[in-house]
Amino acid sequence: MSVPYKIEASEELLVGGQNEQTRASAKVPIIARQFVSERALKTLDIVEKFVEEECIPADPIYAQQIGEGIANRFSAHPQIIEDLKKRARELGLWNMFLPKNHFKEGAGFSNLEYGLMAEYLGKSHIASEATNCAAPDTGNMEVFAKYGTQEQKDKWLKPLLAGEIRSAFLMTEPDVASSDATNISLKMHRDGDHYVLNGSKWWSSGAGDPRCKIYITMAKSDPDNSNVYRQQSVVLVPAETPGVTIKRMLSVFGFDDAPHGHGHITFDNVRVPVSNIILGEGRGFEVIQGRLGPGRIHHAMRSIGSAEKALEYFLARANDPRKKPFGKFLHEHGVMLERVARSRIEIDAARLLVLNAAMMIDSKDAKFALKEIAEAKVLVPDTLLKVLDRAIQAYGGAGVSQDTPLANMWAHGRTMRIVDGPDEVHLIQLGRNENKKGKFFLDKIEWQKKKSEEMAKSYGIEKRDILQLDRQHSKAKL
Amino acid sequence: MSVPYKIEASEELLVGGQNEQTRASAKVPIIARQFVSERALKTLDIVEKFVEEECIPADPIYAQQIGEGIANRFSAHPQIIEDLKKRARELGLWNMFLPKNHFKEGAGFSNLEYGLMAEYLGKSHIASEATNCAAPDTGNMEVFAKYGTQEQKDKWLKPLLAGEIRSAFLMTEPDVASSDATNISLKMHRDGDHYVLNGSKWWSSGAGDPRCKIYITMAKSDPDNSNVYRQQSVVLVPAETPGVTIKRMLSVFGFDDAPHGHGHITFDNVRVPVSNIILGEGRGFEVIQGRLGPGRIHHAMRSIGSAEKALEYFLARANDPRKKPFGKFLHEHGVMLERVARSRIEIDAARLLVLNAAMMIDSKDAKFALKEIAEAKVLVPDTLLKVLDRAIQAYGGAGVSQDTPLANMWAHGRTMRIVDGPDEVHLIQLGRNENKKGKFFLDKIEWQKKKSEEMAKSYGIEKRDILQLDRQHSKAKL
Amino acid sequence: MSVPYKIEASEELLVGGQNEQTRASAKVPIIARQFVSERALKTLDIVEKFVEEECIPADPIYAQQIGEGIANRFSAHPQIIEDLKKRARELGLWNMFLPKNHFKEGAGFSNLEYGLMAEYLGKSHIASEATNCAAPDTGNMEVFAKYGTQEQKDKWLKPLLAGEIRSAFLMTEPDVASSDATNISLKMHRDGDHYVLNGSKWWSSGAGDPRCKIYITMAKSDPDNSNVYRQQSVVLVPAETPGVTIKRMLSVFGFDDAPHGHGHITFDNVRVPVSNIILGEGRGFEVIQGRLGPGRIHHAMRSIGSAEKALEYFLARANDPRKKPFGKFLHEHGVMLERVARSRIEIDAARLLVLNAAMMIDSKDAKFALKEIAEAKVLVPDTLLKVLDRAIQAYGGAGVSQDTPLANMWAHGRTMRIVDGPDEVHLIQLGRNENKKGKFFLDKIEWQKKKSEEMAKSYGIEKRDILQLDRQHSKAKL
Amino acid sequence: MSVPYKIEASEELLVGGQNEQTRASAKVPIIARQFVSERALKTLDIVEKFVEEECIPADPIYAQQIGEGIANRFSAHPQIIEDLKKRARELGLWNMFLPKNHFKEGAGFSNLEYGLMAEYLGKSHIASEATNCAAPDTGNMEVFAKYGTQEQKDKWLKPLLAGEIRSAFLMTEPDVASSDATNISLKMHRDGDHYVLNGSKWWSSGAGDPRCKIYITMAKSDPDNSNVYRQQSVVLVPAETPGVTIKRMLSVFGFDDAPHGHGHITFDNVRVPVSNIILGEGRGFEVIQGRLGPGRIHHAMRSIGSAEKALEYFLARANDPRKKPFGKFLHEHGVMLERVARSRIEIDAARLLVLNAAMMIDSKDAKFALKEIAEAKVLVPDTLLKVLDRAIQAYGGAGVSQDTPLANMWAHGRTMRIVDGPDEVHLIQLGRNENKKGKFFLDKIEWQKKKSEEMAKSYGIEKRDILQLDRQHSKAKL
């Protein structure tokens, strides 16, 4: 079998010398290229090769190593992921997500540079984990690195950075409208040197994995605080703490995402030492706001990669000689080609929006990029789902089944419109920010109208569109 | 009356010290900023001030100076445009469109830099003409500069660069499907030292203006050439040439766009000297392809400006205290705010696509940026029309009438999906280009599947989703 | 010239014996057919012939008889409309809009039957007026017939029914959010035997026509009434009353709709006798609610006709042998055919919605059909605009210009999303009505869940999706 | 627990006497009501009660009785379905799908009447099977009833009508573009008194159920026939025939639809007696065309019910007091209410389209209703998916998980755009049919233009939009 990508020699990247296809580094949009170091470009090509040649072929192996039966699936740890992790470290692909201007622990790339890499990671189910760049660990590691005490870092950040354990972020709750985080209501009170937690969480992604050892947990510690943004705290809860029970695993359009999974977890008098607090009591909002920004960009860029993969599948099908309805290749049906083109446009526009947001973060921090991140958060999943829907339709039955990755990608993509805040919340916040300029625009337009009237006078012009039709005297005067 | 923008001191750009509003140079997307020179940034602010303070207030004056009655409207030359041109030259705003790396005659900006300026020019009906950056003169000047003989340049380019005359580009024809340029069929044959032209053209934009002196005209000179891209020539036809008649002016959704206008022109044995040929016989396609690229970017960026203006109007209305249906400002109705947010996202994504395309042109030439230009050509008008539609709906009756510029902007925006090639043509070309990679993707996916099978063997895995249900013996085997 | 439609012999309705085309009566959706009388079916065919053979060819004549120049255009009364009215009366096509179960003055058809006819009237600019079925006269006549005193009927209804005068309905105002009718604020107070009116109205459609003699006017007579729906009155204002001035005419996307037009009218101490009140003081809302229902159905069905006409134009273009981009008829481009098909589906669905609403009105009255009317009011213009947009795109430049009726139809169609209440108002009311069932559905779903739990017990089933993962002891229990 | 629906007394259908909610018979669109017999109306109410009170609560029981593990899931036969079948027969709800004017074996309802019932069946996963109205048995029974020999009927139709066995329809194949049925290529040749079959099929829905005993199979019996519509035959293959293997079961967005399922089946020298042919060799297309029409209407009406259920869930969530983001019920957020309203409109329009199609079938047969069926086939799934997407978004995480039926409904709804021919095939056929009128419309419009010119002459009018701008002499002539 000939090898399509050769990691050692990125110059000969192509299958059988095909010229249409260029390597990842050559496909960076021109407007972003100058901001990507030579080292990052080289790494990007290695990421592409690693994903296309090693991770994507491994995706089905991983699926099969998980096994069958819900109890098995959530205690499995596929061997292949460890083999890929080993390989990734050899290739220097490890912890690329930690941005260089904020963290010394990472691989030394900017958010923009990592964003480009994340696009390729998004093409494989397991490439992110293989390079220790998988959510929710990435955001959790950022929390530890930014806000953790030395003790917390030693205990949790170190093994996370080494890929030895995994972690979960427990925020969403089943009994409240979690899209408004002030509603979070897991009970937390201090009892001596401990905090005691009671209540339940769900959509605790990653909690299914037996290697998931630590839950970063948002709880309501001060429900009576007049400032609703000071009622919450974030506290560390080791997975093995007595009183913690994973009640059940949630499915996503029929997929269980094992062993990672999405847990529904109950807390029954769960006690953790007070030293497990992050940043301090009442500072929960501070923690989650610091956490979410870059993570949304990672999701967005992986989604761009997912959209590209969908388009690749679409194009493969359009050129499949076995699939010729009405005597023509799918690509000879104009409707299909127009969908391909629209997909190309929409993906390219969405990618630029994400890269621009990544640069905003790089230039300062995630808070500074609030608008840009929200824009990407809303546009990208919408784009991804459109492209996937077209690809699925081109495949027909194969598109909705296990024979292509499209249905699974769609299910995952659909959740992107919900996780980390549903579209509606981001849109209303974006809308409110835009609206702040409304009064200025109202004044400006008024000013321009007045200036126009003054100009009219200076030119000796009377307003022309006044046609007085004096019906009483049955005649029109211009 | 207090002045909102002070051209001399760009630091004090704001109305009444409002902080939400920043000047143009500060709103350049971060990913593009580094490619904009200090001089261009400064000019950009001056463009914004000139447009907002002088051109937009002058728009209604211009409309009123055109007068009434079709004969008047197409012989008018409003005084205000000459006053604005004088002012623009004082401010150094002249011929900014001619890109520095290709033409020495221009103001020395890149396509990216001019693109940013064009956004602001797009907010006023007359700002482009006031700065001698109006279509179709811009593209026509590029044709002269790139392909003209010295004699042609002296006679036509010089007065065009000086803003003394105007020009038209005659391509589209009423009796063929002009979306496919090979159909162009104005007859052209050589008779001694002259070419003789017969037939008709329409959508000859700008031909209504009495100052329009020269028609750059595409004709079929060699209908029997086996190469359909060598059958056409481009030739110069002075407007006053005997046999040329503007049969009528076309309207756009009820607007006549006087005095500029869109002409339907007939050619009845029109004779021009053979020296009027551009580049040479049979090279028409070469000329039009070289012409159209940057022009599409100009259109696109002006459309971005138009979309921004629509959003400004939308926000102004949303904050108009006289317009409170059901006791609430429009911005207090969630539906409106979501539309504002979606508009913001869509405009920002579209702008990045255009700027990226401009950079592609800057990096080499328009041909190199074929894909990027086509992407912008399709996405931007679609975005503009969506934003305009929302703004119009927020205004109700005022939105469709002469009381806002929105209806006129919409009519103009709608033509953008047709001029310079309809959406469908660009989509099919984009689709075909993408499709070239189809075979590669098909092979790659096959390769990945085979590799996966090999990996499965090496891990001792049998394919798991095979459930053999042997109905004959009524039992299932996993 | 052969005649395509022969009114006398509806059996031979077709051009040149073409078999694909059937007459109007044969195209009534099967689900509605049984509700249409033989007489109505026959009239329907006559309407179709009259519109296709006499009105549509007359449309350009009408446009040309209006002339040029704003003063001329609003004093013109094209002769052709009187000739068509004479012809329509000969054919028995007069006042078909007045429904038989509510008014004795009409032609004796149901709303459903007239709805079917209105579809054909909607294909010509002037067919509605030619048959005395034009808005706003239709709604105004209904007001007179339902609520008028005998004196009011004699003076205004009689000449309106005879097509001798025209009328306007003055509701919308420029200075308030008229989408919420409680905001209407034209001042009205009683002074002896007169009411005195002050303020302004706009979008007074039809007021431009010199034959428009009476304004049915909504005004605020009791601004302090605690019931906001009792503050308004509707009063008759003859057009020639001193103090009434048509300040100017409004345009719609550049069209002035002359001579009908849309007036901006000022009231300066306008005095009318108290006997001019309709129904009584404070009963304005009652009047306008009784007026609007059927009118919305008329608009909707005319819009269906407009959509059909757009599709006819689209198909004509798709088969125009002069218009073959890339060597193929437009109908050979799959993208075009798919758009044709989608248009067909959307029009057919929208028509059924309107006909169902018409039947609801027929079965009782417009109030009973509130939901159905609102549904049609929102869906139909949206459908019309989509179909028109596709047709325009197929025509390219001809589609936006005066060479097809499409641009004018689009402009008119766009206003349909605004007039008689913008989409948003109808949607919010529909939404609120639907939401009344929310509590019931919540209870029902809860009840079903509880029942399910009881059934589970009776079948000895434990809930299956509970996977308890006891991380403390590192094991999973199913 | 109080009972919301009492089957015995349909007058007291409501939960707690709520007045907003009315029973099914009262919700029949007015335009369809007259075509529904009293008996059908009464049955409709019983269907509604049976579904809401007995089937929907049983849905989770059914899911749990299937069990876990792929081998188990496809050998399970949940007891509850037999209990429900018994109950349905008691209530007289059995085989309602067989239309009265075509089959004597059914319950004696028209397609329109059954369509109304199917809407309610579509609200439960198992109600269709419980009433012996489930696909693909329904279509298969129609095939037997229409085309079967007495022997075939005795052997297969009888137990199918009695609900004792189930069946599958094997058409789609993995290795060809099955959207074009002429591509079907399962090999079939005659060998003595037997046909021998070789090849594979997939998306053989229902084949997973151990009670599925007979496969109606389309095969290519005469590949060289010059008429591509005569190359196929339909033949009966008992599930237990040697050589038949269910290779694997396909999933739909992660759902396996067990035990019904979607099989991938291989044929290895499968021999069936020649008496197993349906209708005769080469008549396969005849059989499948006769089969598909009504089935598409059933699917469509069940999808309408699914959409109604989605809207019910949406409204329930919008009124859930535990889910109040930003301090307000979801229904107090205007964006949500507008989505509710749009859903209401779209569902109502789509339902009318289906009912109209059902009436067309009733009036003659499915072939006569080709256009109407195709319209419903395309519009309904599109509508369903839009409504479901909005409901899912309102639920957030619960919407994509097993906690609501929405995700499963979505997955199933998505396949509706593919099964029985993808959208694109129906659109192209619809488009082609519409296009047949194109030439007529082209001629008509030409005729109208000529007539208009004649009228212009008779009125003494010259064409007005000709503005001759004679540039040579620099003046305009009107």
UniProtKB/TrEMBL annotation, chains A, B, C, D:
UniProt cross-references to Pfam families, sorted A to Z: Acyl-CoA_dh_1, Acyl-CoA_dh_M, Acyl-CoA_dh_N
Needed co-factor(s): FAD
UniProt xrefs under SUPFAM superfamilies: Acyl-CoA dehydrogenase C-terminal domain-like (SSF47203), Acyl-CoA dehydrogenase NM domain-like (SSF56645)
Highest taxon listed in the record's lineage: Eukaryota
Annotated Acyl-CoA oxidase/dehydrogenase middle domain residues: 168-270
Entry's Gene Ontology molecular function annotations: acyl-CoA dehydrogenase activity; flavin adenine dinucleotide binding
Matches recorded under InterPro entries: Acyl-CoA_dehydrogenase, Acyl-CoA_Oxase/DH_mid-dom, Acyl-CoA_Oxase/DH_mid-dom_sf, AcylCo_DH-like_C, AcylCo_DH/oxidase_C, AcylCoA_DH/ox_N, AcylCoA_DH/ox_N_sf, AcylCoA_DH/oxidase_NM_dom_sf
One cellular component (GO) term of this entry: cytoplasm
Residues annotated as domain Acyl-CoA dehydrogenase/oxidase N-terminal: 44-164
Domain Acyl-CoA dehydrogenase/oxidase C-terminal stretches: 282-433
GO biological process: fatty acid beta-oxidation using acyl-CoA dehydrogenase
Keywords per UniProt: FAD, Flavoprotein, Oxidoreductase
Family as reported in the entry's similarity comment: Belongs to the acyl-CoA dehydrogenase family.
This protein's name: Acyl-CoA dehydrogenase NM domain-like protein
Organism: Baudoinia panamericana (strain UAMH 10762)
